[in-house]
């Protein structure tokens, strides 16, 4: 595989050479947010297991095994270390639901995007119109929607539903991109990844954890909107680094590291290094803008942005240890 001089320079270690991709990522990724963990993680894990069982989502042994390897409550605990147990449970349930939904949508969409339409339309009808569910996945989503409505203000619940619909719509873009005839470069991959990240639906829950609802001028401030985009992108791109080997083996297309590999026709370690550089720039911009806007924010506004930062931090520490991504951690880092 060929690499440019710039790529080789980026990949050259300035410390002890990394033995595997996990070490390569750790040596190069900029992570200014320290590890934190919610003390109610074990209760949330038990709650997730009960909730998935209630709606029949883990009746399939493959789904149960996926949840065991994914540890959604652990991700929730790392992302939301200060949330009260009730709200943390909603976050954990939603993470679990999205993993089940996303994996099924990817499987169906890869075989035939058209077969994905009933599944997506059911979700949109539930989120937009409160429509009745027709499948176990739909029933779980309807219950999740109810939980959000009971805990959040009407405006927060409406934002949650809107952001969730965008995530659902994005899965159709992913299915089209998985078609073998469609070349997916790094720019197009980032655009689709933004749609299917599934992170922004959690931001209204971050807001619900604050003392009061954010004022419109604060919530819709241009810098606040930019912070939302930056944090969601960084939060989902970091797991892309750790899932690269898994996705490569499965023939996945929408992964930041794999997109760099296709674009530059380079080795996976070089592609991961290039992706890390892009992520580092995103995190540094988030830090800079937060530093500028922070003094103007209310206490609830500060807490809201801290919730966004929590997703960047949480996705990093979760990705490093979750069994779902163990293959990347052990993959050789030789360039």
TrEMBL record:
Q: Gene3D superfamilies from the xrefs?
A: Farnesyl Diphosphate Synthase
Q: One Pfam family this chain carries?
A: Terpene_syn_C_2
**Superkingdom in the source lineage:** Bacteria
Entry protein name: Sesquiterpene cyclase
Recorded source organism is Streptomyces tuirus
């Amino acid at each position: 595989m060929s690499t440019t001089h710039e790529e080789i320079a980026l990949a050259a270690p300035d410390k002890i050479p990394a033995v595997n991709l996990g070490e390569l990522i750790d040596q190069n990724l900029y992570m200014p947010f320290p590890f934190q963990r919610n003390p109610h993680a074990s209760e949330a894990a038990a709650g997730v297991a009960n909730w998935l069982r209630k709606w029949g989502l883990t009746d399939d042994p493959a789904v149960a095994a996926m949840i065991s390897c994914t540890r959604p409550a652990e991700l929730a605990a790392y992302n939301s270390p200060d949330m009260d147990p009730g709200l943390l449970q909603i976050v954990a349930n939603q993470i679990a639901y999205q993993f089940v939904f996303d994996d099924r949508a990817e499987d169906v969409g890869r075989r035939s995007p058209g077969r994905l339409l009933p599944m997506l339309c059911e979700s949109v009808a539930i989120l937009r119109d409160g429509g009745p569910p027709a499948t176990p996945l739909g029933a779980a989503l309807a219950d999740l929607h109810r939980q959000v409505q009971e805990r959040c203000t009407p405006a927060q619940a409406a934002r949650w539903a809107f952001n969730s619909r965008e995530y659902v719509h994005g899965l159709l873009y992913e299915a089209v991109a998985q078609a073998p005839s469609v070349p997916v470069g790094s720019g197009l991959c980032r655009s689709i990844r933004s749609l299917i990240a599934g992170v922004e639906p959690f931001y209204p829950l971050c807001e619900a954890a604050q003392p009061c609802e954010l004022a419109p001028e604060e919530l819709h401030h241009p810098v606040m909107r930019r912070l939302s985009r930056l944090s969601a992108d960084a939060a989902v791109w970091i797991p892309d680094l750790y899932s690269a080997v898994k996705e490569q083996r499965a023939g996945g297309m929408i992964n930041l590291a794999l997109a760099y590999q296709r674009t530059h026709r380079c080795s996976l370690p070089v592609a991961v290094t290039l992706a890390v550089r892009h992520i580092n720039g995103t995190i540094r911009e988030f830090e800079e803008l937060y530093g500028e806007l922070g003094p103007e924010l209310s206490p609830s506004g500060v807490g809201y942005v801290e919730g966004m930062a929590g997703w960047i931090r949480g996705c990093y520490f979760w990705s490093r240890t979750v069994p779902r991504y163990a293959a990347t951690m052990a993959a050789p880092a030789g360039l």
